[in-house]
Amino acid sequence: QVQLVESGGGLVQAGGSLRLSCAASGSIFSIDAMGWYRQAPGKQRELVAAITSGGNTNYADSVKGRFTISRDNAKNTVVYLQMNSLKPEDTAVYYCAAEIDLAPRYWGQGTQVTVSS
């Protein structure tokens, strides 16, 4: 079992920045990658960014150049999502996920990000 706890969401004006954090605990040795997903009202959950255990990253086209996923190398169990130049369309509940065998297996509780215009 893996437990994930997110923090860092909130309300920000368009053009502003937020940083989300996700702390993993439990059977972390089984994790292949960590990802950030988001779900806006009435929409499906979508992948925002992911980072593998080897440090490779990938991003949704909509956030490339604005968001950065990273890992605390000192604490290999903490993953961040730095979000810059936020837009109202980034408003969603953001979820941290632990991926095993190339699929999200464990989810955090979610943190709300609201971007006002």
Topology at a glance:
Elements (H helix, E strand, L loop, with lengths): L1 E6 L2 E4 L4 E9 L6 E7 L6 E7 L4 E3 L7 E5 L6 E6 L8 E9 L2 E5 L3 E6 L1
What features would you describe in this structure?
This protein is mainly β and 117 residues long. It has strands at 2-7, 10-13, 18-26, 33-39, 46-52, 57-59, 67-71, 78-83, 92-100, 103-107, 111-116. Strands 2, 4, 5, 6, 9, 10 and 11 form a 7-stranded mixed beta sheet that branches. The mean pLDDT is 94.
Average pLDDT score: 94
Strand content: over 45%
Structural class: mainly beta
Summed up, the helix count is 0
Describe, in short, the structure shown.
With 117 residues, this protein is mostly beta strands.
Jot down its keywords:
mainly beta; seven-stranded mixed β-sheet; 117 residues; 11 strands; four-stranded antiparallel β-sheet
